[in-house]
Amino acid sequence: VVPTKPTITASTCCYCGVGCGVLIEHDGERILGVQGDPDHPANFGRLCSKGASLHLTGDVDARARYPELRLGKTPARSRTDWDTALDHAATVFADTITAHGPDSVAFYISGQLLTEDYYAFNKLARAMVHTNNIDSNSRLCMSSAVVGYKRSLGADAPPCSYEDIEQSDCLLIVGSNMAYAHPVLFRRLEAAKAARPQMRIIVVDPRRTDTCELADLHLAILPGTDVALFHGLLHLLLWEGWIDRAYIDAHTQGFDELKLLVRDYSPASVARLCGISLEELQHCARLISSAPTFLSLWCMGLNQSTAGSAKNSALINLHLATGQIGKPGAGPFSLTGQPNAMGGRETGSLSNLLPGHREAGNPEHRAEVAAYWGVEQLPVTNGLSAVELFDAVHDGRIKALWIACTNPAQSLPDQQKIHEALSRCPCVVVQDAFATTETCSFADLLLPAASWGEKDGTVTNSERRISRVRRAVTPPGEARTDWSIICDFARRLEQRLRPGRPSLFDFTSPEALFEEYKGLTAGRDLDYSGLSHAVLEQLGPQQWPFPPGARQGTPRLYLDGRFSTADGRARFIAEPYRAAKELRDARYPLLLNTGRLRDQWHGMSRTGTAAQLFGHAPDAVLGLHPDDLRQRQLRHGDLVRLRSRRGSLILPVHADEALLPGQAWLPMHWGNRFLKGLGINVLTQPAFDPLSKQPELKISAVDVEKV
Ligand code: SF4
């Protein structure tokens, strides 16, 4: 038998925010292999271990294939048909809204949905249900960066491109193990450093991660002290006259107030507070100031913090003070965790946002969107952010919850409380491709969704680049695309809540959703109303803004020094350093940090189905500094009980010299499917940043004892 050549469909990787182009090899029914797309400008053919294993993660046994329903909490779910499932959901949601008001229901969605899916969910929540109770797991990921960009630069728009990473003379990587979390971008950085050894790389991270292997300087600051570090650096830059006064005068506001604040951050006191030497701090300031171009990259180490907004703003302050923004190789550049966290921000998929980078709290923005959708008004009441939303489920204010493409029973902090909330909620609908997630076990209604390789649409990566995601094969069983599930449900809900009125959801394709949605970007900072699926087909992935008539996207923002604020000037933000919410004390003398492994993704819904991806790290293991093991008379490999104020876990402990004494580290991926009892997040704390509402997943006080 002569083997037939596989068909190739170009798409985008479904894991991290690098957004690599992938060529899917398939026979129309099965995905047979994957290759990096040599023509995709994010990766030029490279893939990391996760992307290169995508074809191994389609385990059909793990997939949700048929709708399943239970009436009441005790019986197991049984298979049903789509009509029964969606009619049931529409009846429960309509009855709940009628009896208790629109804010008694909520939607918790995901940075792994496509832009078209996101848009449908937003229109459903705001225009149809009339609630702002729609939040995304991007709240756990990027919401502090959103606040940072908006406060300082006037819009949630990362100003840089990946090629800036290659062109920069000095890179500051803060709170990001890029080597594991954004591997293909890290490979690009490695290649650039090899080609230009004079490029300087500074890594700021309490752990000595693999990313530090490339660093000329590693600042192992104490957890949570980033704001003090940035203010201390600015103090030094000011003292030495290494700021760009002309840029500050021409393009910014608020420098005098910040100058007063950082006067108190003397280098010696900052070095002491951060746990580094004065020489290291001075060396860092010198590297930044002497480089013709300076770029910073950051991720969860800054964002997942009760001071996440302040950390983002303090870092952006450094760029504004040195004029290192709006030119090749320079600028503040957040790395997005999820493949389409950016698309979520664009479509308004955080409770405080609206489509087109608008604010739910802004009456003019509400009126614009309401007029576009042809509804009288949009909801005025503030929506709940992720942690608040699950608190409201826990205390009974939310009675019907729709969860799509995410696994909050594993990924939210204070997991015991999340499990209680989901157990108590009268109606939990879970729309997911995988039936094995921790959250699925709480579903009263499980709706099987199409997964990567089975659906069409678009995603936006960290550098504002919109790429096509394409369907190669048919979803298993009766699984359906996310956009079609939500539009079908919305039409049934319309019949119950606004009968006789024209449907707001007569979309027949993801392209139709994109066409309607893009109109809401017109004239806004992110304007991509010049794009369409057809234009992307013709020109390939493009960076926004891409207004009508554009021939190509926009690689860099703010080249003319004009920002997205009303007066065009960027803002310095003067906020003092605040310590993390939980500090070490006698009962909990260690600080727990959680993070990513190289070969796993989030809650392992997909990567957990491929045995090969456990080769790098087969189990969840607690890391402690050898001194901390010795003090507790523990040995490498011992089983220990790790305890926080919220719960405990039993795990093996390993000696880890990459950690500072007093710190503990765990991979974030393991839920209760893989661990006995509860998952890693039983330990983590739900305290969140007052502005971004992003929880402090990176710092929880813990203790450890031998079992
Ligand atoms: Fe996928 Fe990210 Fe790896 Fe690229 S770097 S292949 S987007 S996981």
UniProtKB/TrEMBL annotation:
Species of origin reads: Serpens gallinarum
Please provide the record's keywords in A-Z order.
4Fe-4S, Iron, Iron-sulfur, Metal-binding, Molybdenum, Nitrate assimilation, Oxidoreductase
Q: Which residues of the full protein are shown?
A: 11 to 717 of 912
Where is each 4Fe-4S Mo/W bis-MGD-type domain found? 6-62
Coiled coil ranges (UniProt) are none
Which cofactor(s) does the record list? Mo-bis(molybdopterin guanine dinucleotide); [4Fe-4S] cluster
Q: Which family does it belong to?
A: Belongs to the prokaryotic molybdopterin-containing oxidoreductase family. NasA/NapA/NarB subfamily.
What is the protein name stated in its UniProt record?
Answer: Molybdopterin-dependent oxidoreductase
